[in-house]
Amino acid sequence: MNICVFLSAADLDERYTRPAREFAELIGKGGHTLVWGGSDSGLMKVVADGVQEGGGRLVGVSVDFLHAVARPNADEMVIAKDLAERKALLLAKSDAVVVMVGGTGTLDEATEILELKKHGMHRHPVVLLNTAGFYDGLKEQFRRMEDEGFLPLPLTDLVFFAEDGVGALAYLEEALGVQ
Predict the structure, then answer these.
(1) What is the pTM of this model?
(2) 74: closest CA among 93, 54, 97, 51?
(3) How far is CA 82 from CA 58, 63, 122, in A?
(4) CA atoms of 127 and 100, how far apart (whole Å)
(5) Which residues pair with 39 in a beta bridge?
(6) Which terminus of the chain is less hemmed in, N or C, by CB atoms within 10 Å?
């Protein structure tokens, strides 16, 4: 399974790096491929290291202006011309999407992926990995959108909220029929 992970490239503390590393190791040990933004810094590096150490493959999609921080030993690295092309390539190269902790870029990626799914532009299962309650507020907002009629389909058809990497991976494997 090719798992696209949207996440921060910032250096973060242990409450985010430890669960990220644990999830990455599950991806690698499961024989899956990480499809990610290609950065060799911060949380992106932590996840890429964990996947690679666990035996998984790395497919990076970077952009010209971030080429200098792209991971040199990825199994595959594509350089997109801009962020829009990057998001499209990340989605095209993946079977599933996991949104981990991040800033405005991660939030932009998450909302675009969900908007595309809402309109039937892809059928990938999408997981928001709610590490340390990071997405509690967003989860509440999505529920309000659903309750007040802003979503044309049930929230559960758009996204699954997982509290840990084990739950995230189990959901994806079940959704895609992977054993």
Answers:
(1) 0.95
(2) 51
(3) 20, 6, 21
(4) 9
(5) 70
(6) C
